[in-house]
From TrEMBL:
<dbReference type="InterPro" id="IPR003137">
    <property type="entry name" value="PA_domain"/>
</dbReference>
<dbReference type="InterPro" id="IPR046450">
    <property type="entry name" value="PA_dom_sf"/>
</dbReference>
<feature type="domain" description="PA">
    <location>
        <begin position="138"/>
        <end position="221"/>
    </location>
</feature>
<protein>
    <submittedName>
        <fullName>DUF4910 domain-containing protein</fullName>
    </submittedName>
</protein>
<dbReference type="Pfam" id="PF04389">
    <property type="entry name" value="Peptidase_M28"/>
</dbReference>
<feature type="signal peptide">
    <location>
        <begin position="1"/>
        <end position="24"/>
    </location>
</feature>
<dbReference type="Pfam" id="PF02225">
    <property type="entry name" value="PA"/>
</dbReference>
<keyword id="KW-0732">Signal</keyword>
<dbReference type="InterPro" id="IPR045175">
    <property type="entry name" value="M28_fam"/>
</dbReference>
<feature type="domain" description="Peptidase M28">
    <location>
        <begin position="246"/>
        <end position="442"/>
    </location>
</feature>
<dbReference type="InterPro" id="IPR007484">
    <property type="entry name" value="Peptidase_M28"/>
</dbReference>
Length: 450
């Protein structure tokens, strides 16, 4: 692996934090200098070496490959998510952990399929509130309804599926206008180029099936199907009584009881149509490798790995996990290290952000900064105020929590592949996986080691 010039700048908002205020991260030049000097002769301790010498980026990469390319999308409540959970469980058992599958219900949702009479498949998102179709779907000609305004419809729309462009009026208004004109279904296509299908949100229930598709798909349907009076078939099914699960691996010290608990978490689900290599096979696979490396060293705290389901539908799995902790367990919980999107190769994502819900430092950020100094983590660490991942659930339960995530420094931008079908293994960096594993692994070990 290419050895990068060790650029070491730590961005902190310590002073602002102690004064109770939070602003954008401040670069403490003196710390940067001190840290840069350390790098010439990293003060990595023997206990850090025990961890980082054993963390294998190749093993992490292979697991990401399995999750993102072999399984593919791991949408909440689907077989893909369950398969990932089973794989993780087997692995953790093989490492000797006590492993629990914690199952929970997820809300009903709609899924859809769209194909043309020429058997071309079109990726489609179905919004909550869409009507379902009979099993065979609805088959109809398309009506080009422009932007879906009242004046865009004619009597020709009756009995057809209205094909409507995004823009100018709300999705709900477009659907209402189509229904009023006698359309039996609605397809809304994007007006900007995005890799995945549009996700229209229509508010309440409507009496016809509704789907969102990409700009490219919409324009192709206009040219091909609508122009030549071919048909499309839209199937919409309600998925009911779906289950998701958290996989929890525990390791307690040999002696005594009521030890402090440290939770390492990563979500295993992805959004639809995304292989989720970075979001979040990366965090999942790094956590699995940490479970491997930390499986047998003597420890004086309880270590839990929580592989979380149903994150992408609103942190459902992690909320369930913390809701099942007793008050006593919450009281013993000292930290949550959450990894979500730690492996992107996107060149601008040169910083490791430590997102906390309140933007304040805590035991996790302090420990990670101290570890980064000792081991010479090449990337900047940035303390930043942000929710949007499972650390929120731990924080809400009163447990100091951090989401480790790679972003572009300054802008805090995420990689452009985020939540798209482009989130694939080719945009994963072995070097950055190793960096995240070393940082979080050595931090965790520094807290739990005997
Ligand atoms: N992997 C992202 C994490 C993330 C963190 C995204 C910070 C953006 C900013 C996560 O899986 C995600 O997409 N979260 C959702 C919110 C969640 C509550 C469904 C999001 O940010 O849209
Ligand atoms: Zn995520």
């Amino acid at each position: 692996m290419k050895k990068r010039k060790k650029h070491y700048s730590i961005m902190l908002s310590m002073m602002l934090v102690t004064s109770g205020l939070y602003f954008a991260p401040v670069n403490l030049t003196s710390q940067v200098k001190a840290a840069t000097q350390n790098l010439a002769d990293p003060s990595t301790k023997a206990f850090d070496q025990k961890v980082i010498a054993r963390i294998s980026a190749e093993r992490i990469y292979k697991d990401i490959h399995f999750f993102s390319e072999t399984i593919g999308p791991r949408v909440t409540g689907t077989e893909g998510e369950e398969r990932a959970a089973e794989y993780i469980k087997e692995r953790l058992l093989s490492y000797g952990y006590k492993v629990e599958t914690q199952e929970f219900s997820v809300p009903d949702k709609m899924i859809g399929h769209l194909h043309t009479s020429d058997h071309n498949e079109v990726l489609v998102n179905i919004p909550a509130g869409s009507a379902a179709t009979p099993n065979e779907g609805v088959t109809a000609k398309l009506f080009n309804a422009g932007l879906g305004k009242v004046t865009d419809f004619t009597v020709e729309a009756t009995g057809k599926i209205a094909l409507i462009s995004r823009g100018e009026i709300t999705f709900k208004e477009k659907v209402d206008n189509a229904v009023a004109a006698g359309a039996i279904g609605v397809l809304i296509y994007d007006n900007i180029n995005q890799p995945g299908p549009l996700n229209p949100s229509i508010g309440g229930n409507v009496p016809v099936p509704v789907g969102g598709i990409s700009k490219v798909s919409g324009e192709a349907l206009l040219q091909d199907v609508a122009a030549q009076s071919k048909t499309v078939t839209l199937n919409v099914n309600r998925i009911e009584n779906a289950k998701s699960q958290n996989i929890i691996a525990t390791r307690a010290p040999n002696k005594g009881k009521n030890h402090d608990i440290l939770h390492v978490s990563a979500h295993i689900d992805s959004v639809p149509f995304a292989a989720g290599a970075n979001d979040n096979a990366s965090g999942t696979a790094v956590a699995l490798e940490l479970a491997n490396v930390l499986k047998s060293y003597p420890i004086d705290k309880e270590l839990r790995f929580v592989f979380v389901g149903a994150e992408e539908i609103g942190l459902v799995g992690s909320e369930y996990y913390v809701s099942q902790l007793s008050q006593e367990e919450v009281g013993r919980s000292i930290a949550n290290f959450n990894m979500d999107m730690v492996g992107t190769a996107w060149e601008n994502a040169t910083a490791i952000y430590m997102n906390t819900l309140d933007g304040k430092a805590n035991i996790v950020t302090d420990t990670a900064l101290a570890t980064a100094q000792r081991i010479g983590t090449p990337s900047q660490l940035v303390l930043y105020q942000r929710g949007s991942s499972d650390h929120v659930s731990f924080h809400d339960a009163g447990i100091p929590a951090v989401n480790f995530i790679r972003r572009e420094p300054g802008t805090a931008n995420l990689e452009p592949y985020y939540h798209t079908p482009l989130d694939k293994i080719e945009h994963i960096s072995l070097e950055r996986l190793k960096e995240a594993g070393d940082l979080v692994g050595a931090s965790v070990y520094s807290l739990i080691r005997k």
